[in-house]
Amino acid sequence: MIDFFRRALDKFDKLDQDQRRELFISAVDEIKLFKNVLDSIDKGIIVCDEQHRLLMANKWAQRLIPMNYIEGAKLHTAITDDRIINAFRDIIINREKIVDKEMYYEHHGHNRLFSVNVVPLVQDKHVTGTLIYIDDITEKRKGQARLRRAENLASLTTLAAGVAHEIKNPLGSISIHLQLLKKTLAKKLNAAVNSEHDQYKEQMTDTSFNKYFDVINEEVERLNRIVVDFLFAVRPVNLELREGNINELLTQIMEFVRYEMEQSNIMCFLELDGDVPAILMDERYMKQAILNLVKNSQSAMPKGGIFTISTEYADNEIRISVNDTGEGISKDDIGKIFEPYFTTKDTGTGLGLTQVYKIIKEHNGEITVDSASGSGAEFKISLPSPQTDKRYLDFNGGTTQ
């Protein structure tokens, strides 16, 4: 099409008024098509001239980046976010070529991750400006994290049988033989009590024997719990789904933990949406998932704080929020918290949130977290609501039950 316009311009003086008008209309239509194509691309595109004046910014660029778009305005005056201005200024002034530079930006109250590419705009082998290409890769990165978690769980599954055989069975054997050893020593102790040898009696009545046994038993039980948690994380969950009321379950959980939380100077609040319908769930596993989140929040508030559980019914979803005002989760850690064995606690196994993630996914739900260091954390669970009110379009355009 460009070659057509060039040839037409060469003969412009020979064209009559109608031909010039048709040529002008064709050029306008071509520009409209070009603009519509750029506006339909779900990536931000910004074009500047050599003086960094805006030549064009498509609709996605104006949605992704806060700007007052005025054609011909300087780029640094059009963009209203100082961090983005500074990043772009350094790139453009230094005439750098940037490929997939990642930038975090708060967009409508949510942290978004952008990938930015900056290349020179070349015309007739001369640099005539700058082309900035912006892609919102937040969901893509979350998808990669979900895929990575799924791959980790899949690889752990192959180890589950070996772990059960190599660790759990010997632990059971150790526990049994400890009990047998304790009974044998108890018999020796009884014999010592009836013995006339005072020195032997004193040795056998030493209470340190029981202390040693208690310590060993505690450690065996702790190791057994770790193995059990590991196996739960990698084995398929056999849900027994029954219709239940999530509000009633959350009320029971809050009553169960309230005293312990208040003893830790944590104020508890329960904000329930009365319109939440019954859902299909395995109450045992769902309670386990929520309690894990409660314990997580409690440990994040060692000096006290505010803990809130709330529900909401909207868009055929039951949404559960578990919110605390604790220490929060750093930007580096927030993408890893659902991965097996990731923990920031000295005594944690790193499997608690993995279990929560697995239980929610088995209920066909989703779980996300919003947090930052020092500003608390909010875990958001969304569960599908069963569709009981089925409506069909009748031949008259109305609906029938």
Would you mind describing this structure in some detail?
This protein is an alpha+beta fold and 401 residues long. It folds into 3 domains: 2-138, PAS domain (Beta-Lactamase, 2-Layer Sandwich), CATH 3.30.450.20; 141-234; 242-384, Heat Shock Protein 90, CATH 3.30.565.10. Helices cover 48% and strands 23% of the residues. It contains 11 helices and 14 strands. The chain has a 5-stranded antiparallel sheet. The chain has a 5-stranded mixed sheet with strand order 7-9-10-12-11, with helices on one face. Helix 6 (138-193) packs antiparallel against helix 7 (198-204) and helix 9 runs parallel beside helix 10 (283-299). The longest helix is centred in the middle third of the chain and has 56 residues, at 138-193. The radius of gyration is 33 Å and the shape is elongated. The chain starts with a helix and ends with a strand. The model is unreliable at 388-401 (pLDDT under 50).
Largest sheet: 5 strands, antiparallel
Distance between the termini: 56 Å
SSE run: HHEEHHHEEEHHHEHEEHEEHEEEE
Query: CATH superfamily assignment of the largest domain?
Result: Histidine kinase-like ATPase, C-terminal domain
Please, what is the average pLDDT?
Answer: 79
Estimated helix fraction: 40-55%
CATH class of the largest domain: Alpha Beta
| Second-tier CATH architecture of the largest domain | 2-Layer Sandwich
The number of helical runs is: 11
Which class best fits the helix and strand makeup? alpha+beta
Strand order in the largest sheet: 2-1-5-4-3
User: Beta-sheet strand percentage?
Assistant: 15-25%
CATH topology of the largest domain: Heat Shock Protein 90
> What is the radius of gyration?
33 Å
pLDDT < 50 stretches: 388-401
Number of β-strand runs: 14
Return the domain count. 3
Shape: elongated
